[in-house]
Amino acid sequence: MLVPTSEIKNKAKRGEVYAKQRTEKGKAKRQRRQEQKKEELANPELREARLRENVPATQENTREFDEAIVNETDEEVAEDEGEDEFAAYFNGQTPKVLITTTPNAGKRTTGFVKELVSVIPDIEYIKRGKKFELQQIIQFCKNRDYTDLVVVTEDHKEPTHVTLIHLPEGPTAHFRLTRVKGGKEISGHARATSHYPELILNQFSTRLGHTVGRMFAALFPQVPEFQGRQVATFHNQRDFIFFRRHRYVFKSGKRVDLQEIGPRFTLRLRWLQKGLYDPLNGEYEWAYKADLETSRRRVFL
């Protein structure tokens, strides 16, 4: 019979009893697991039943119900996406992307932009001068048939935000940028090649998430070059979008090894605006507000 340690007044004795009880509990737990393992080896159905019943509760599978979550078989959503601003890209249009920064960007910001240039194929980087306003740059891109404009802004010479403008009619998305790490800062990183990467978009499950995911997809050529074995991943988890780029190597028929190329960074959507960038008179489809975070299990992408 276990003695409640709270009833033992002597501190040294209490610690000794607690350590002994903890050791005995560990032994009993290991013995129980060994017996369970033998039973499941003899009867595999027991293991299947245990795994089926013991599903761990995570923030993803306990998220609050949202009517905006898209079902894969939703015909209405499929029809809308077949006629939206990105439909031409999914029908074979080749992306033509321009990237720029705030005027006189610092070394860290320009370094991050050069990393993005290595990620997005056929993207063009133009250094921005003081006299060019963003509206002028948007018109410049429209006149030259660019499909997307990416603007990296900084604060105290550190990259802090990314604005993604889909041309010629929008929409425009503005993201908070954090946890930037260049490829050379990653231990054991691989070297990037000029091959078109494969693209993975994870857990963009709502109507808003679909729009954001399609904006990212429209930056990359639709047909990847598999011989490069490069994969660019945008992984959404609780509205934080984690970007990673890897090269994969097939070791055997069942095993695949990954080597990170870089860069790595995290994005969080601050607002999504219909049409082109217009902070004063634009119509906002969604904007972040602190009072929206009523629960950690409530997500929007």
Task: Sum up the structure in keywords.
eleven-stranded mixed β-sheet, 301 residues, alpha+beta, single chain
Describe this structure in words.
This protein has 301 residues and is α+β, with helices and mostly antiparallel strands. 29% of the residues lie in helices and 26% in strands. The protein contains seven helices and eleven strands. It has helices at residues 11-42, 44-53, 75-81, 87-90, 107-119, 134-143, 207-217; strands at 97-101, 124-125, 148-155, 158-166, 172-181, 198-202, 230-237, 240-250, 256-260, 264-274, 283-287. Strands 1, 2, 3, 4, 5, 6, 7, 8, 9, 10 and 11 form an eleven-stranded mixed β-sheet that branches. Helix 1 (11-42) crosses helix 2. The protein is elongated.
Write a short abstract of this structure:
By secondary structure, the protein is α+β, with helices and mostly antiparallel strands. Helix content is 29%, strand content 26%. It is built from seven helices and eleven strands.
